[in-house]
Design goal:
mainly beta; OB fold (Dihydrolipoamide Acetyltransferase, E2P); three-stranded mixed beta sheet; 2 helices; 11 strands; disordered C terminus
Length: 179
């Protein structure tokens, strides 16, 4: 990232690392939730870590990647993607060398940090992905990251129509369609 910050997470949570691709925006989602991607039939929310950390925005380039990770939420285990400036190395971290995050006085400022460790003369901030992203996923508008329970179709103008499940009039075999 711009200030040479380096972040790390549990490699066992990584499902895939892929190049940047455009996302489908979700109305009323938090600003750092860019939208969703359809990855092999799964709808995956995409979070920009720069925006989540209130850092200066950067252009998405050829080295910008999306790391698809598995996170534990109150609703269960779900996949999500994080947009990062780039990926460098996988490093082994000696847990005995991990230092706790400092108390910064601000409520929640370090809640998502598992600890800090020096690796090759650089400070690595170890993230608690469940705390960092898990709350975001459960706060997304209904339907984001979940499959719809009712059939839907799009008309030529992109407007979504859902079949309303109402008890049929005994005199008629018609169902009402509404938008």
């Amino acid at each position: 990232m711009r200030g040479e910050e380096t972040y790390g997470g549990d490699i066992l949570r990584v499902q895939e690392i892929r190049g940047w691709s455009a996302v489908t925006k979700i109305p009323h989602a938090p600003a750092h939730v860019l939208g969703v991607l359809n990855l092999r039939g799964s709808i995956v929310p995409i979070v920009d870590l720069r925006m989540r950390f209130a850092l200066e925005r950067a252009e998405y380039t050829a080295v910008t990647v999306i790391i698809v990770m598995s996170v534990n939420t109150p609703a269960g285990r779900r996949d999500f993607g994080v947009v990062v400036d780039g990926v460098s190395d996988v490093v082994d971290v000696d847990l005995a060398q991990v230092k706790p995050a400092p108390e910064l006085g601000s409520c929640g400022a370090t809640d998502f940090i598992r600890g800090l460790v020096s690796v090759a003369e650089r400070m690595l901030v170890l993230l608690d992905i469940d705390r960092l992203i898990g709350r975001d996923l459960t706060s997304l508008p209904s339907g984001a990251g979940a499959k719809s329970r009712r059939p839907a179709r799009l008309d030529g103008g992109g407007n979504e129509h859902r079949e309303k499940h109402r008890r049929a009039d005994p005199r008629s075999d018609r169902r009402r369609l509404g938008g």
